[in-house]
Amino acid sequence: MIQNLASGVRAFTSNAFLVTGETTALVDAGANFDVVARIEAQVDELDRVYLTHTHPDHVKNLPAIREAFDVETWGYDPENEYVDNAIADGETVQIGDDDYVALHTPGHKPDHLCLYAREAGICFAGDLVFENGGFGRTDLEGGDRETLIRSIDALLDTLDDDLAALHVGHGPSITERPIDDVELAARAARM
Fold this sequence. Notes:
- By secondary structure, this protein is an alpha/beta fold.
- Helices cover 23% and strands 22% of the residues.
- The protein has one domain: Ribonuclease Z/Hydroxyacylglutathione hydrolase-like (Metallo-beta-lactamase, Chain A, 4-Layer Sandwich), CATH 3.60.15.10.
- The chain contains five helices and eleven strands, in the order E-E-E-H-E-H-H-E-E-E-E-E-E-H-E-H.
- The strands form two sheets. The protein has a six-stranded mixed sheet, with no helix packed on it. It has a five-stranded mixed sheet with strand order 7-8-9-10-11, with no helix packed on it.
- Strand 8 and strand 9 form a beta hairpin.
- Helix 4 packs antiparallel against helix 5 (178-189).
- It is globular.
- The chain starts with a strand and ends with a helix.
């Protein structure tokens, strides 16, 4: 089961997805709300935290999560203070009951990852793409529009047409033809 623990929060935060199953994991930690209480309301322990990238709105809650659950984090850049364990491009990790392939998708931030479970038809897209063809900012440090376009294209080439759910870093998850939103983002980013 996948739940967005940041749902209804009225503060600047990313989405923070709690995924339960064989392993209990959090995808992105969010910021500026008591995520620990929201996790504790759902589960007794947390096995791992996966980071799509390390912008403050995705990691600010990590210190409290680490303290409460004695949990390690996985992300692309092991040199970053928020990443305990590196995930390489193309590496497979288990989140909940499914195996996800990590896709290095820079452009919004150099350490950006998308996590895709082909069999389950689920992708965590971080801030690469959003609903209705939105895409990640490239005006922040480390952002680059051409790199972002290549990353969106690479994600599009990887995803199956029958993708069932695209969980994004901000805004609602996309569950109706999410591949269409990724295609639209690829076109919109070129404008």
